[in-house]
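Check out one such.
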Amino acid sequence: MLTQGSKTSLALAAAMSLSLAGAAAQASPHILKSGPGTEEGFEGADAGPFTVLESEVGTWRVSRGTAAINGDHVRTGTRSLHLTGGSRCEIELDFEDLGGAGRLGFWAERWTQADPFECTVAARVGGQWSALVDASEDVVIGGFHTEVTAVLPPGADGLRIRCTSPPGKGVLIDDVVLEPARPMAVVGCRALQPVLPVLVGNELNPILAVEVQTRGFLEPLELESISFDLAGTSGAEQLERVEVFHGGASLELSYDQPDRVLGQGDRFGRAQRPGKDPAQLRTVRGAQVLAPGRNVFWISVTPSPGADLDGRVDARVRAVVVSGEEVPVEDPSPAATQRLGVALRSAGSGGSRTYRIPGLVTTPEGTLIAVYDIRWNGWGDLPGRIDVGCSRSVDGGRSWSPMQVIMTQGAGRGGDAGDGDKWRGDGVGDPAVLVDRERGHVHVLAAWSHGDRAWRGSGPGLAPEETGQLMLATSTDDGRSFGPLRNLTAMVKDPAWAYLLQGPGRGITMGDGRLVFPAQFQLGPGEGRTPHSTVLVSADGGATWSIGAGARPDTTESAVVELADGELMLNMRDDRGGSRAVLTTVDGGATWVTHSSSRSALIEPVCMASLIHVGRELRGVADGRLLFSNPAVASAPRRRMSIRASEDGGKSWPEDRWLLLDEGKSAGYSCLTMIDEETVGILYEGSRAHMTFQRVPLSELFPAASDDPPRGGR
């Protein structure tokens, strides 16, 4: 049993989970139910501080400072251990003598950039403590990328982990392993297939993982070959090559640095041509010494530049050979398949470190217009060196034009970038895009921060030196070019407000021709800078604009659709977390009514989302079919990018109308559009590219009653 103080919790789950999926723990045969050689994943423990924690690996005791169980940041499963730092935070583990020498292993994540930072481990033998390992210089920030290992001396029956850092920071620890010295043996092998996009433009696209679990660390074994086929792939012509990579012990792939786990130096064996028959057996041979515990190998493909984005890619494991012996593979062909897509913008492309904040629309000519932040220097929001970029596609997203910069730094000052310390650098970003379906014009609305005049630094007033500016760019030639920027700030902002900005994402044209952008504003400092979602409305094709009242306090980024004629639904990011807030208005945002689905129907981890009305998008007529996209989890980290469908105007969102696109961790923003009568397009911040584009058949979201649920899983 796990106990925290005197509170009894659930029994420790002898399991590990696919951290990429954030799913419940799955059975893993290498974890021993009792006796020496147990792995501690802290599953079943209640989140929060504790002083004593009983577990299968032993008894944890906080001897100095504070320790807690963390449920938000984990390597596997749903729990990790947090030593919270301070001048010296210590936790001790009492365990049974392993009967000789042994091995300690755990994964660690530094929780602060600030110094000082210390992370050391000592072992207890015969009641005396001696230093075992100093990992202070090794543990890195973020992602549980550091494995701390050490040989335990004979007679050891206790460990002490010490952390010194600024108070409240410290170090996170997960997957603690104690095992006696013994020869290595394979105790489990299985195929895993998290749902991930296969992207044209990415050289590495993991489609299936082979996990080899070992026990023991003496006489290490060697993986010699993996045999597989590509059965389930739409056609071999979809792919340029297929290869296998050694991913270490991690199943997590980083969206910040997509090659962080998989790099060219990690290739196992030689790359292969896919051949003509996807079902053809392929064997990749190499020589990879296995580590104790989990060893992950990824089958990866490179799609052809002209790959059919409506196709699928799949793989099936046929054989795994370790040190001359074939080992049995559990579930060699998981049910999921991978969708194709396009890596529209990735880290480093076009000279920018980061791309964020997608917006996507379809013009009356059938052209796709994608807009996004070009964050030249990194992930940071405004203020910063940020421009708005635009890409066009005239073939349904299969190919895209080169990026053009349509809104740039110093947006309202004739190019004055404000490089001095006074301004901290100008920037313009967080775009929202709208198509005027009567005139064919494309409008892009973005926030200009002249110096620190963004979410935290903006204040009351109307001038650029006082407050963030609302800037509009318009194209009259189907998005090929955009005219001079217009500053709408004085037209729509209440001078008492601290900040006003757009959606982001996209706006709509109503049935009566009015243009509507979602928007958000902060009240003044005297009112706590409380944010409210609202709408911006133009009745004259964008020449003039008016702003609605705040729909609900503590809401920000929102998406808008027209339901019945003249009725707008605003679907909002809610700072309370857990689920989306939804309100409606019939008077252009002057008054608001809470919708029946508000704060209950659509879970969210506090993130931007997208919402479209299919009938309005295609023909300007209400048909009640709504599509919604977001990371479909209730708390951070953002992951499981999904599309959900409603047939009753958003009153209900059935679980069998839930389509999973990318279960990896990501920044999580998305934007939907109808490409044509049969196809949905989505541009989102994914786990494998900063801007991921995919096409989805509408029939998968609204199948006939007798059809199966949407493919891709939940």
